[in-house]
Amino acid sequence: MLNFRNTLSTLGPRVLISLALVSLTLVSGTTTVDAAQPNIVFILVDDLGYMDIGANNPDTFYETPHIDRLAASGMRFTNGYAANPVCSPTRYSIMTGRWPSRVKATNFFAGRRPGKFLPGKLVDRMALEEITLAEALKTKDYRTFFAGKWHLGPTEEFWPTKQGFDVNKAGHNAGGPYKGGKYFSPYGNPRLGDGPKGEHLTARLADETVNFIRESKDQPFMAYLAFYSVHTPLMAPKKLVQKYRDKLTKMDLSDEGTFADEEQVWQNSKKPRRVRVVQSHAIYAAMVESVDNAVGKVINALEEQGIADNTIVCLTSDNGGLSTSEGSPTSNLPLRGGKGWIYEGGIREAFLIRAPGVTQASTTCEVPVMSIDFFPTLLELSNIKHDAVDGKSLVPLLKQESKWEREELYWHYPHYSNQGGFPGAAIRQGDWKLIERFEDGRTQLYNLASDIGESVDLAQKDPERVDELKSKLHAWYKEVDAEFLQAKPDGPSPWRAE
Fold this sequence. Notes:
Layout lengths: L3 E3 L6 H15 L11 E7 L19 H8 L2 E3 L2 E2 L5 H10 L36 H6 L4 E6 L18 E3 L31 H16 L4 E7 L10 H11 L6 H4 E3 L12 E3 L5 H23 L6 E7 L26 H4 L3 E4 L8 E3 L3 E2 L3 H8 L13 H4 L9 E6 L10 E6 L2 E6 L5 E5 L15 H18 L18
Helix pairs in contact: 1-2, 2-8, 5-8, 6-8
């Protein structure tokens, strides 16, 4: 049974006022544009955790009024997922609507870290033969714009302008802003000119997107804004950082209560892996608010140009919040794990869609959906036909129709993550989630309806369900020609599905 809810009554007064202002804007001062070809703004926030935004977590330490306003103006999916617990595979899935495992794009490009065994084979580029979302939209004369993190190919021939985008601001091979002043100009980015010294990258990307929207308002367009934030390095404007340091002084915190133990995957580790359980990192909080302010700029630009009522806006993340390494800046509780883990904290995402004339304000959907679904959804909303993909159009859900079926979702990660996660795969069917670990084939079974934190393994109590889900998962392995761990030279062989 499909479960939709109207959440208007649960929203705070500030969000309600913002929503009312949006509604007034949509009624007046609009530009007449062909409704069969709506504009698209797709916002991808790197490493943003499900629990980082107020719409999903009213008790979050971070302040996200603009993202919350976006959530209040459309549909919020409470079981929205990334296709993978790290970035590049999920980015591929959004661009193509396909399982990343089909092309062996199963880790960030090009992560090949060994552990007890060698990782599965990895292809570290999105092939030019793929039909991307941008290329599909170009068949209907859309102007296409990309800003931010690309991370879908090692060399220029695989970057955005070779994959259907007319404009590329800052997209290249790197997975983060690691050169120059990093998050502040000078950037050292081969696809973004430097601004004034000290200019903030997050704000600059929003400004570039706003400029494109203003220039393109009289024809259909897609603006794809893929923030480098909130990925490491952890850096933010000083005033915002100080704001959250001041906020922390009002909280009763101790290091002992801020972190908890997590399972240890790496052998002979000098320092046990721990997971953050309290949101209390001032710099990360400032990074989140910086992204939120940038999102606000873009949404405001749509309203100012009178095109908000003909523009679809989507917002999601490429993987869960970073909670177990590299500063462990956020907590995903009650979700277990984080980026690099196939527990819920690593794959469940903020997942928001506002499609004027299709979605109703302040609605939520509890149906499990995934990043592979954006491609067919946006093309259907744009009246563009496409070849079959692995994703499924969410338009019936956006319209709150009762007929929509998909039995399972799958994840496949044959790698040792930098964040301490284990190689494995997972299947979700209804409320049930089975995890299969690739080192030895062990399985874990959880009921997410009663145990969102994946703390009670039911595999021993329900072997019939384990067998049923394993059978489906193994059939999927064959369908996508899944990779598995490999033996080291002269070493033992890892488990492999039959």
